[in-house]
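Q: Sequence in, structure out?
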Amino acid sequence: MDLSREYRERRYSAQDGLSLYFRDYGDPASDELPVLCLTGLTRNSKDYHHLACRLTSRRVVCLDYRGRGRSDHDTDYRHYEPRTYISDIVQLLALINAHRLIVIGTSLGGILAMILGAVQPFSLAGVILNDIGPEIPNASTERIASYVGTLDPLPNWDAAIAFLRTNYGAVYPDFDDEGWRRMAETTFTLDQAQRPCIDYNPQIAKTIHSAADEGAPRLWDFFGTLRQIPTLSIRGALSDVLSRETFDAMALAKPDLVRLEVPNRGHTPLLDEPACVDAIDRFLIELGS
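A: Exactly. Output:
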């Protein structure tokens, strides 16, 4: 199946001239609020394909951050940091003329959604945070820093699938063979020798290591900017990034927070789980968008 027929492939220039890629699904002229999908640290727009295809009565835009997927790599690793990503996102919103929208953010994408709450609060009609909160355990930050950018190309797809099973089996304990294959296809790209390799610039690791040395960030002030914005928080029941304690503290800080805990998922739920599908659909209906 040619998945590209289900979306438009588009590019734009960031303020510093870097060429960035995004997938543009659905109806740009829809009266429904558009959705911006923001991925995790090393992930790319392919992660949101199935979700975006479900929501095509509205416009759904899925960005590859700089250095990920089909976006260009930045020659200065210091630009792989939230302020630059926010600048790139604001530029994208201006390009697609999205003055008010819903943001779905997974992991890093959720952090960026919270920062957008401070930068452009009146543009956010609703936010969905996928397995991320305003406090991240130091051990989780160190774990992430330990693997980013360290994987050499693998000999074939079977090896790529085996790698994921070994390293992420505890995150997705109920995955079948097809589930692991789908994850491999969204995780890896092919190099010139047709070997699966990481689909991001390994230079990202430099800023991650610096952040890990400084300790996990506390983001409560940014979470506070969502006080008046309808928000759905999704947690993988096995997650080591969004702890149960932080998940509960978020509800105390924002009593109208809608919450979902997804069984058999660590960091992060894929958002195609039945419970996620139902929760996201209800959330969008209640937004009246």
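DSSP finds ten helices and ten strands in the chain.
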